[in-house]
Design brief:
single chain, about 475 residues, alpha/beta, FAD/NAD(P)-binding domain, Enolase-like, domain 1, 23 strands
């Protein structure tokens, strides 16, 4: 017998499980079809495991600088136990995975382990949207929902012509399970993932080289952010090669690891490393979903949706998260989950623009941003004014021992509206939440500057930089 349900969700990552909880809270019966593990890429191959590794690297780097805090350690007593680092990462993932399973039980949400495929009109339903599920044990199941939410996520994009061996030439998925830390690494791609891996491995003592096709790393971020992060990485020994591209047919395995041919302008440079990590973006998981059985369209490898309601070409079928492209972040998928469920339950949702979703980089130092970059704001025709405040003037930054970085605000000089905030420094990924709230409430910089911030804190950077727009910063 087919399973009849109000809402069927294909994919159990952050977008999928949040949509399930929201729908259940609205009184709908819900089922999730997940082919792997509940939690998706974020929990098992992305956000959580990578941040666990980054935290271990940060602690190791801080211990290495203990003398600057007045702490002396016996020489040779500090080392990295890579197995223990991985065990900690795996333990955190498992704890959160169990928590998600309990959350589903709490809300009476059924989870089916299998691969779901949408079918067209049939004996099960007069309209497309029934889901044929191939179960993990080889059996099959049919689900007939009133609404479907596609939340199948994404996977690392691979370079055509490059042979991946899951050990020496890898994506971030495979790198998370390396049994040993590489002595040297070549990272292809200087975006967020590439920069985070470069920062983490560099702190662990790996010799790191980044190859980026654009003229700077983090090319979609504000130029000041890109410059500050590049400077911090290079100070710690990371080599950054920009305006460069990997020649896929020029890569080969050697006795010592990987040899790669890289085109830099008109020159071919040969680079050698123990391992190579390819981080050139992500692509949506839209294959084998049965989209051809529906009026749902895919463009450039992502599901096409109404940007306001997240409906696909079939009004009762929605799509959210990485599989629709745009800003591919877990919290973006969670926001889109709420929008989709609000719409299918009959309320009028309000979806945030991609630029108004916080973007975080968990390198050392961290970086975070929201809204327009200075360059993009000018391109959009705004009359731009900016202010930038170095963190080194803050007492808490000096006490904390992390003085790298800045706070920058981009505003419209005609209206006073807040256009963008860009942070680099310790805990930047936490501090950006204030700017996110400001965007939601349509606060102007003056209002943020007049908000009383505790002293001494790093959050004072937000207050001071907002006041600095009109020459009113207390720190000069």
């Amino acid at each position: 017998m087919p399973i009849e349900v109000d809402v069927a969700i294909v994919g159990g990552g952050p977008g999928g499980y949040i949509a399930a909880v929201k729908a259940a809270q609205a009184g709908r019966s819900v089922i999730i079809v997940e082919r792997d593990k509940l939690g998706g890429t974020c929990l098992h191959r992305g956000c959580i495991p990578s941040k666990s590794l980054l935290r271990s690297a940060e602690v190791y780097a801080t211990i290495g600088e203990a003398i600057s805090y007045g702490i002396t350690l016996p020489e040779g007593t500090v080392s990295v136990d890579w197995k223990a680092v991985l065990d900690r990462k795996n333990s955190i993932v498992e704890q959160l995975h169990k928590g998600l399973q309990s959350l589903m039980k709490q809300h009476k949400i059924d989870v089916i382990n299998g691969s779901g495929r949408i079918i067209g009109p049939s004996i099960f339903s007069p309209r497309s949207g029934a889901i044929a599920v191939e179960l993990a044990d080889g059996q099959s199941e049919m689900i007939v929902p009133k609404n479907v939410i596609i939340a199948t996520g994404s996977r690392p994009r691979r370079l055509d012509g490059l042979v991946y061996d899951s050990e020496h030439i890898v994506t971030s998925d495979e790198a998370l399970d390396w049994s040993t830390r590489p002595s040297s690494i070549l990272i292809i791609g200087g975006g967020v993932i590439g920069v985070e891996w470069a920062s983490m491995l560099c702190d662990f003592g790996t010799e790191v080289t980044i190859v980026e096709t654009a003229d700077r790393i983090l090319p979609t971020e504000d130029k000041d952010t890109s410059s500050e992060i590049a400077k911090a990485l290079q100070k710690r020994g990371v080599k950054i090669i920009v305006n460069a591209s990997l020649q896929a047919d020029g890569c080969r395995l050697t006795d010592s690891g990987v040899q790669a041919s890289v085109s830099v302008k008109d020159e071919v440079v040969i680079l050698n490393a123990e391992k190579m990590l390819v981080s050139i973006g992500r692509q949506g998981n839209v294959e084998n979903l049965g989209l051809e059985n529906t009026d749902i369209k895919a463009e450039k490898g992502f599901v096409k949706v109404n940007p306001n309601t997240l409906q696909t070409g079939e009004a009762h079928i929605y799509a959210i998260g990485d599989c629709i492209g745009g800003i591919q972040l877990a919290h973006a998928a969670m926001h889109e989950a709420s929008v989709a469920v609000e719409h299918l339950t009959g309320t009028k949702p309000s979806r945030a623009a991609d630029r108004d979703i916080p973007r975080c980089i968990y390198s050392r130092p961290e970086a975070a941003s929201i809204g327009w970059t200075e360059a993009d704001a000018k391109t959009q025709g705004f009359a731009v004014k900016t202010a930038k405040l170095p963190l080194r003037i803050l007492g808490k930054a000096l006490v904390y021992g992390e003085v790298e970085g800045f706070a920058k605000v981009v505003a419209d000089s005609k209206t006073g509206d807040l256009l963008g905030v860009h942070l680099v420094g310790a805990h930047a990924t936490e501090l950006i939440a204030e700017a996110s709230l400001a965007k939601l409430l349509d606060a102007i910089p003056w209002e943020i500057g007049r908000t009383i911030h505790p002293h001494p804190t790093l959050s004072e950077a937000m207050q001071e930089v907002m006041l600095a727009l009109d020459g009113g910063a207390g720190h000069g």
